[in-house]
Write a structure and sequence with these properties.
By secondary structure, the chain is α/β, with parallel strands linked by helices. The protein is 40% helix and 22% strand.
Length: 497
């Protein structure tokens, strides 16, 4: 197996990696289409290209969907659940065996610190392990219809599923869609983000190596226009799982309506972290920092709004600013506290939010500007930023910045914190820090969000259903509820007397 130190040394010497896949992964192997078009993939930490990958077309999508439909109808839906479980379990082990390669590639493609990439890879392995255990436990119900009848339900795989994977958590999001779909007996056609194509391709190969039949998991790379759009409108797609922006999610939903295709949408977030005066302050400080600065704030569920009681505001925020200023920026392979943002275009978007805020007279306590890797002067970086006392209707409090920018909103008490937390178009997750457990659960019931964290942000794991309310989307991934997203329930009633 390739180890991280050798991979990093190879990259430092050559500017690329020999182990990167070439072509789409279709029907059990990497294939290079006749048109042979390619695109560049960029290392955000350097701000320069490090590899090329295949730029797919509608014809490539057609080939991948045909392959997956054939594999579904000919074999995969009828494979015994216990055998599906064994394949997914072997895939989990192979991910761990190859974690150095996957983590280094994830860092180069997305920019995130290497230690975070390792966490994502291990989480992907755990996802396949979890759904391996669920394959042979997907059982229906029976109905009490009386002595003359028998009634029951069965869960059938929905069919060929399309997965549109975002650039911020490429392998994590791929795994949380692929694993339950495969466990349910569905086949997969995936389109990774054009900024981060490689780990989805590597994952598809590992699944095949684990015993997945050819065609059951296909990956086509390219742009949203050339690959994503024809995939989501394809008449042989039975389900779409999309993670991305609200704007693109609307388009996917409208497209799916033409063929009445099922969808799960995980869209944006502007999640509040409610910190009350009776919290464990050290616990809350660590939680708030991680909630917004992990992956440079490029997380749909990032805790991007700190809603804090007025009585502890000054002391808490003062310490928070001090710790934020101490964070070290750098290239992801150097394992910094905060890495770059994913692209020059996204960096400009973040900068635009802050420049408009400055023009409005925003109280920026720290950060607020574009910067670079202190070691090289290169890369797409934005300073870890805290903006204080932001009005509820300000765009910094309402719009998803998707960067290392924390907005502070001041509440008079817990009831006021609840009002502020809910005064937003999004409802993905929320955090609560308080030592009053009854109060925590009262707030958890009343905050309109799909998932609530109490006294630890990002608590839980693959076992916990995840998804949003309001403009954060609908449907749930992860947990057993995520498995049911890839099933259609059939009811059967029979007269037996």
């Amino acid at each position: 197996m390739l180890n991280a130190s050798d991979l990093i040394a190879e990259y430092e010497k050559t500017g690329t990696l020999e182990a990167l896949p070439i072509g789409h992964f279709i029907d059990g192997s990497f294939t290079q289409p006749a048109h042979n078009g390619t695109m560049e993939s960029y290392d955000p930490g350097r701000g320069k290209a490090f590899a090329r990958f295949t730029a797919g077309t509608e014809e490539d999508v057609d080939e991948a969907v045909r392959s997956s439909k054939s594999a579904f109808e000919a074999s995969w839906r009828d494979v015994a659940p216990v055998e599906r479980a064994r394949i997914l379990q072997r895939a989990s082990a192979l991910i761990l065996d190859n974690q150095d390669l996957l983590a280094v590639v994830e860092t180069l493609d997305s920019g995130k610190p290497l230690q975070e990439a390792y966490g994502d890879v291990r989480g992907a392995a755990r996802t396949f392990e979890y759904y391996a255990g669920a394959c042979d436990k997907l059982q229906g119900d029976s109905f009490p219809l009386g002595p003359d009848y028998i009634g029951y339900t069965i869960h059938e795989p929905v069919g060929v599923t399309a997965h549109i994977i975002p650039w911020n958590f490429p392998i994590s999001t791929a795994a949380r869609g692929f694993a339950p779909a495969l466990a349910a007996g569905c086949t997969v056609v995936a389109k990774p983000a054009e900024q981060t194509p490689f780990t989805a391709l590597l994952l598809a190969r590992l699944l095949h190596d684990a015993g997945l039949p050819a065609g059951v998991c296909n990956v086509v790379t390219g742009t949203g226009t050339a690959v994503g759009a024809p995939l989501t409108r394809h008449s042989d797609i039975d389900h779409i799982t999309f993670t991305g922006s609200v704007q693109t999610g609307r388009t996917v939903m409208k497209t799916a309506a033409d063929d009445v295709t099922r969808v799960v949408l995980e869209l944006g977030g502007k999640s509040p972290v409610v910190v009350l005066k009776d919290c464990d302050k050290e616990q809350a400080l660590n939680g708030v920092l991680g909630a917004i600065f992990e992956n440079a704030g490029q997380i749909c569920s990032a805790g991007s709004r700190l809603v804090i009681e007025r009585s502890i505001h000054d002391e808490f925020v003062g310490e928070l600013v001090s710790r934020t200023r101490a964070l070290q920026l750098g290239h992801g392979l150097a394992k910094p506290d905060v890495g770059p943002v994913n692209s020059a275009e996204h960096l400009a978007k973040i900068e635009g939010f802050l420049e408009r805020a400055k023009a409005r007279g925003a109280n920026i306590l720290t950060g607020g500007s574009v910067t670079s890797d202190p070691a090289t002067g290169n890369g797409w970086f934005f300073e870890p930023t805290i903006v204080d006392a932001v009005p509820v209707k300000d765009e910094l409090a309402q719009e998803e910045i998707f960067g290392p920018v924390l907005t502070i909103q001041i509440a008079d008490d817990a009831d006021d914190a609840l009002r502020i937390a809910n005064d937003c178009q999004y409802g993905l997750v929320a955090g609560i820090y308080t030592s009053d457990f009854a109060k925590a659960h009262q707030l958890a019931r009343k905050i309109d969000a799909g998932q609530i964290y109490i006294n630890e942000y990002f608590a839980g794991g693959i076992e916990v259903p995840f998804g949003g309310n309001k403009k954060s989307g609908f449907g749930r991934e992860k947990g057993l509820e995520g498995l049911l997203s890839y099933c259609k329930t059939k009811s059967i009633a029979a007269r037996i007397a």
